[in-house]
Specification:
Helix content is about 65%, strand content about 15%. The chain is α+β, with helices and mostly antiparallel strands. Strand 3 (about 150-155) and strand 4 (about 160-165) form a beta hairpin.
Length: about 180
């Protein structure tokens, strides 16, 4: 129970620092990377949990393994988890971060489905146009859907807007019949 309390406190403090630095989205992305790595990589899990390797050596290994993929904030959180013997709780910290970020975030999530991956600039430009039409800030995520022949599908929260070629052809067929 005390570990869960510590996990929430660490997540809340880390998210506050990320917000002050203006890097919340990037921070969450990098922490999701850490969470996936923890779940998929036995060596990383062992490194975070073992007491046999000194802290300094663990941090050197982590910096060598992740390099520039992590910021100093993530390295500091990893170090804090190791020092407090909470390395095994890294996935719980990631879940807490996501829940806290969603609770404080006023942006609606929008997923843009396209036949091929969109370049980051194009995705942001389309997202800004959608934001302007809706009148509220959005969190944009692009997904390549090879089943789409052309056009775009948008998922705004729980609403699906289908502007795909298949949907347009279906609407045309209905008009003609």
């Amino acid at each position: 129970m005390a570990a869960d309390y510590k996990v929430r406190r660490i997540a809340k403090a880390a998210l506050n620092v990320a917000a002050e630095l203006g890097v919340v989205d990037d921070f969450l992305d990098r922490f999701e990377l850490l969470d996936r790595t923890f779940r998929d990589n036995k060596s990383f899990r062992h490194l975070m949990i073992t007491h046999r390797i000194p802290l300094e050596q663990k941090m050197k290994v982590l910096r060598r393994a992740f390099g520039g993929n992590l910021s100093e904030l993530e390295y500091e959180i990893l170090q804090l988890l190791i020092v407090q013997n909470l390395g095994v709780k890294l996935p719980a910290v990631a879940r807490s971060l996501i829940m806290l970020a969603r609770a404080r975030d006023v942006r609606m999530e929008v997923t843009i489905f396209t036949p091929e991956p969109m370049a980051g600039k194009d995705l942001n430009d389309l997202g800004k146009r959608i934001e302007a039409n809706i009148g509220r800030p959005l969190r944009i995520m692009g997904v390549a859907d090879p089943d789409l022949l052309g056009g775009v599908k948008l998922r705004l929260g729980n609403t699906l807007v289908d502007g795909s070629l298949a949907r347009r052809l279906e609407m045309l067929r209905q008009e003609l019949v």
